[in-house]
Amino acid sequence: MAIPEVPVRREVRMEAGSTGAGPGPSQEALAAPPVYLDGRFVPAQEARISVFDHGLLYGDGVFEGIRFYNGRIFRLEEHVERLYTSAGAIGLSPPLSPGEMREAILDTAARSGLRAGYLRPLVTRGVGDLGLDPRKSRRPSVIILCAPLTVYESQRQRGIRAVIASVRRPPRVSLDPNVKSLNYLNNILAKSEANLRGVEEALLLDLEGNLAEASGENVFLVRGRTLLTPPAEVCLKGITRSVILELARGVYRAQERPIPAAEIFEADEIFLTGTGAEVVPVVEVEGERIGTGQPGPVTRDLMARYQEITHRSGTPIPYRIRWGDGEVTRDPPKPAPAGRASRG
């Protein structure tokens, strides 16, 4: 699939005397990798959608969050499959085939020049009118963003604090938790509550008072050498969650079952999992210390196992940019020297 090219510009230029404040694109946008937008690549500061796009007006669309490490995209096939499963669940037909979407994601990563980072493919319902009727949106839009990402990097070694949110996870009959839609308002309300209470995260319960998920991650409790995690009926069946269950096989016991809120405070360890967050220890909930108040041995072991698998496996990124009839090959950046932390 031929895609129009744009030069990849990494530098940021400012007028003499400018502070970067005021209207106009942010410095982050000016330096950001190009964006895939409906079949072409454009500079990030020029990427625009219509104000009548139903993804903007109503959160009508789906997305994925994908990480890449050492020049390889981790679990790309699973992410593409879940994107199309989510789209099908809301009656949305992406204008690209899964194979074309996969290639567009790889091309976006290649053009970024990054060796490690985060990809965000979105499919919106497209331009419609101010009504809700999805039939008025004739053609869905596809957007793919790429950027460096660090989530909880500074807190990963010491652990984070959480509260139990007052908002509840909507029941499956209202909104299937395995549809990764653009409507994240419930999660945002939970995250805002955590912010207001001065902690990093919020845990959400379902309507029965059982643990469901965190604001943007899956949750695991550890009791001895047993992992407990809520069933997929009340939370997103996260890809990182699935990887952790794979890594635990044969080493730890694992149970997917309803977890009453009281069990949170009986856990020896708690950790969160997600593509962006990876594996993050939780050492305090509602002011109560979890276990020793430090990341526990099971959590640390699984953190190390996860880092190892993400950095040695995945779909290779073709660091190659096509210009007209010729080709320019861009070698990926060299890995950081041993002992330096990897960003992403």
Low-confidence stretches: 1-24, 322-328, 335-344
**Which whole number gives the mean pLDDT?**
88
Structural class: alpha+beta
Tell me the CATH superfamily of the largest domain.
Answer: D-amino Acid Aminotransferase, subunit A, domain 2
Count of helices? 7
Proportion in β-strands: 15-25%
Quick one: how many beta strands? Answer: 19
For the largest beta-sheet, the strand count, sense and barrel status come to:
9 strands, mixed
Strands, helices and their partners?
Layout: H1 27-31, E1 35-37, E2 40-42, H2 54-58, E3 61-63, E4 66-69, E5 72-73, H3 76-89, H4 98-112, E6 117-124, E7 141-147, E8 160-164, H5 185-196, E9 201-205, E10 211-214, E11 218-223, E12 226-229, H6 239-248, E13 253-256, E14 269-274, E15 278-285, E16 288-289, H7 297-312, E17 315-316, E18 320-323, E19 326-329
Parallel strand pairs: 8-9, 8-15, 12-13
Antiparallel strand pairs: 1-2, 1-7, 3-6, 4-5, 4-6, 5-17, 6-7, 9-10, 11-12, 11-14, 14-15, 15-16, 18-19
